[in-house]
From TrEMBL:
Positions of the Protein kinase domain: 2-208
GO cellular component terms, A-Z: cytosol; EKC/KEOPS complex; nucleus
Chloroplast listed as a keyword: no
Family classification: Belongs to the protein kinase superfamily. BUD32 family.
Organism listed in the record: Lunasporangiospora selenospora
Name of this protein: non-specific serine/threonine protein kinase
Organism taxonomic ancestry: Eukaryota, Fungi, Fungi incertae sedis, Mucoromycota, Mortierellomycotina
GO biological process, one term: tRNA threonylcarbamoyladenosine metabolic process
Reactions catalysed according to its record: L-seryl-[protein] + ATP = O-phospho-L-seryl-[protein] + ADP + H(+); L-threonyl-[protein] + ATP = O-phospho-L-threonyl-[protein] + ADP + H(+)
Alphabetical list of PROSITE patterns matching this protein: PROTEIN_KINASE_DOM, PROTEIN_KINASE_TYR
UniProt KW keywords: ATP-binding, Kinase, Nucleotide-binding, Serine/threonine-protein kinase, Transferase, tRNA processing
Gene3D superfamilies (UniProt xref): Phosphorylase Kinase, domain 1 (3.30.200.20), Transferase(Phosphotransferase) domain 1 (1.10.510.10)
Length: 208
């Protein structure tokens, strides 16, 4: 049990807590055991996923891509301690009808596209790109990529195209009338990625 922890989210793979750590509010992500797997195999697979997620986050940080900073990794307990980001999700931003947030959709789209292009430049595939996994910092209103639980490293065009396809499906299913915004995301992505033209061609062909 994590001391003074508040459970804020539970998914199929992990629990996410908010808890004090080193005199600051911190996100602690705990991957839990799968009862249907052999305990030894489960421990090995869970440890591998914890390490892989932390490495992808650190890889992004070193490339100056805005992701939560990793403070500590406890492989034995399957825990990642990382930066708590005050802000709101792009999903909430797009579905809200009140408040008039000081960010235009075109600026937001450009920033998302640039972030994804830089991420794919260093061969990190997110694996679960949704508007819930794109945050906007409260103060700067800049975009942060979060939840790298399914991330991995790959230089394959197909893998990066699938990443974009997942985001495209998230936009079309959750945010109607955002076709222009998603086109702007792809335009910015095309300008920032090394192999972006090939990746976008693969996405357009739909053969993924």
């Amino acid at each position: 049990m994590i001391h003074d922890a508040q459970l804020i989210k539970q998914g199929a793979e992990a629990k996410v807590y908010l808890a004090p750590f080193c005199q600051r509010q911190t996100i602690i992500k705990e991957r839990f055991a799968k009862a249907y797997r052999h305990p030894t195999l489960d421990k090995k697979l869970t440890s591998r996923r914890v390490v892989q997620e932390a490495r992808c986050l650190t890889r992004c940080q070193k490339a100056f891509i805005d992701t939560p900073t990793v403070y500590m990794v406890d492989v034995d307990q399957s825990l990642i301690y990382m930066e708590y980001i005050e802000g709101f999700s792009v999903r909430d931003y797009l579905v809200t009808t009140e408040g008039g947030l000081p960010v235009s959709q075109s600026r937001l789209a450009k920033e998302i596209g640039q972030r994804l292009g830089l991420m794919h430049n260093i061969d990190v595939v997110h694996g679960d790109l949704t508007t819930s996994n794109l945050l906007m910092r409260q103060e700067s209103q800049t975009v942060v990529l979060i939840d790298f639980g399914l991330s991995y490293v790959s230089n394959l065009i197909e893998d990066k195209a699938v990443d974009l396809y997942v985001l495209e499906r998230a936009f079309s299913s959750t945010h109607p009338n955002t076709e222009v915004m998603f086109a702007q995301i792809l335009e910015a992505y095309g300008e920032s990625g090394k192999a972006s033209k090939q990746i976008l061609k693969k996405l357009e062909d739909g053969n993924i």
